[in-house]
Design brief:
Nuclear Transport Factor 2, Chain: A, 6-stranded mixed sheet, 29% helix, NTF2-like_dom_sf, SnoaL-like
């Protein structure tokens, strides 16, 4: 398996565990000193912090995975995962088509950095943007 294939597999498995949500299993794909930054520059200390944050923002949320893109560097592989989020807001309104882009750095078989962007904040501020509400 190439470095690229291994990195994409690690990210894919991490995302699957995150969506379960299973923060313990998700953590097995991350380095102990992983840097996790969510939308708005929110720094997350762990996969448990991700699950807690998502639990406050959504009644539930899942990812419709799109494509994986990558670039090789001398000491790591960068993997981008894009697609859409779907789920339910805390007030019960469903949503779908909420774009996301996640960037991962994978070194020595572990995710060492994760950056997350999505449309959720915009949709919460302007509910008319949510096409399923």
């Amino acid at each position: 398996m190439s470095d690229k294939d291994e990195a994409i597999n690690i990210v894919s498995n991490f995302l699957e565990a995150s969506m379960a949500p299973d923060p313990e299993r998700a953590a097995t794909y991350m380095a102990p000193d992983v840097r996790i930054t969510f939308t708005g520059g929110r720094v997350m200390a762990s996969t448990h912090a991700i699950t807690e944050f998502n639990g406050g923002r959504y009644a539930w949320v899942k990812k419709e995975l799109g494509s994986f893109d990558w670039t090789e560097h001398s000491d790591h592989t960068v993997v981008y995962s894009n697609g859409t989020l779907y789920g339910q807001w805390p007030d019960g309104r469903p949503f779908a088509g909420n774009r996301y882009l996640d960037r991962f750095e994978v070194r020595n078989g572990r995710i060492t950095r994760m950056d997350v962007w999505n449309d959720s904040a915009e949709w919460l501020l302007t509910p008319d943007l949510n096409r399923t509400s």
